[in-house]
Amino acid sequence: MRSVAVFAAAVLFLAYYCNEPVPDGVTDAGAYRAMGIFFRTLGHVARLGEKLGIAREPHIRRDAISLLTNVARRFKSDHRTGLKVTDTTFDGVKVRIYEPAAVQATDARRTGLVFYHGGGWAALAMDDVDEMMAHIAKQLGNVLVGVDYRLAPEYQFPASFDDCLVATKFFLRHTEDYNVDPKRVGVGGDSAGGNLAAAVAIAMTKEKEFPKLKVQTLLYPALQAFDFNTDSYKDSGHLNTLPTDLMISFWLWYLNDDLSSFHTLKANNHTTEALKRSQYAGYVNTNLKTTTPVSKNNIKFPAIDRIETILDPRFAPLMADDVDLKKMPPTYVMTVEHDVLRDDGVMYARRLEKLGVPVRHDHYKHGFHCCLLDVNAIDVGREAMENYVSYLKKNL
């Protein structure tokens, strides 16, 4: 009788634990449910592991994802077929170069894309996104450079940004080595990688040595740590694919590796009332509300280590002033409805459009964060990737 009770309790627990509610409108219910359960479980394990002193939470997340990726890869065909893949360094920064294996006999220069992967600057390594990088390279049919930038919390801002900028400059100096036209090179990235792509694009407008970037392409990007109470945070902050708590932790691991101010950020108390009335508040307003300009030199911040960095465009590209955003190259922004980062991308696209920058903004009402991680299994991810590659073919 006791064994029956234990079995019944186990079944009830599993039924409860595996009950992952699917947001209205999500068409890939099975994929969303599986991904939500995985990330929820990963969060529990990572936090427990840190409390037990096994390892830091971001390290456990990273190791677990890498383990799962390696196991899953054994059951799939070689996703690199048709590509020449080379691991090397650009000025000391690790990169992975994807080129078509069959080189056509032509004098025409190829296009190039420098891509920065996501993962909250902390949770994903290059091998974890190798399949996505290879997919883009094969569909695009040209050269893709994936940047294996240093990760938080071991390396905090600006390490990831610096690596991406250094690698991009190196590639632009050596495009001849890959038969790439330096005037047809773009940057791109997903999630935290979208943050890095936008930050690099802004930085490159100040460089006179290089040709202008052809495009910047941002896939559900993280662009601001100013306001964690936007509509998208309120709508989707409870979803396990990317909950508010995890996104704030990512920002803090990247900023200063100190979660002691976590609740201050979550309550939006890391910005003062003066800041909430400043132009920076207008930058994170979907209606582009006009506000009172203030000088960074006159702003007072709470006693949080390096908190003033939230206004640095290298850290949070949405905080760039209009004079800098006007110089942006043609821009592609992809957003998904069920994502705390939805409004980051929407606000960035609207600001650029208002400033006269050519923008294409694709929004997927049935999409959710991380849907691009497996475009072969997730329909909305496949649709979004096809549209993204189509944009690159036409504009790069």
From TrEMBL:
Every Alpha/beta hydrolase fold-3 domain range: 113-258, 309-372
Keywords: Hydrolase, Signal
SUPFAM superfamilies named among the record's database cross-references: alpha/beta-Hydrolases (SSF53474)
GO cellular component entries: membrane
Molecular functions per Gene Ontology: carboxylic ester hydrolase activity
Active site: 191, 339, 369
Recorded coiled-coil stretches: none
Signal sequence coordinates: 1-21
Gene3D superfamilies: alpha/beta hydrolase
UniProt similarity note: Belongs to the 'GDXG' lipolytic enzyme family.
Official protein name in the record: Neutral cholesterol ester hydrolase 1-like
Organism: Branchiostoma belcheri
Lineage start: Eukaryota, Metazoa, Chordata, Cephalochordata, Leptocardii
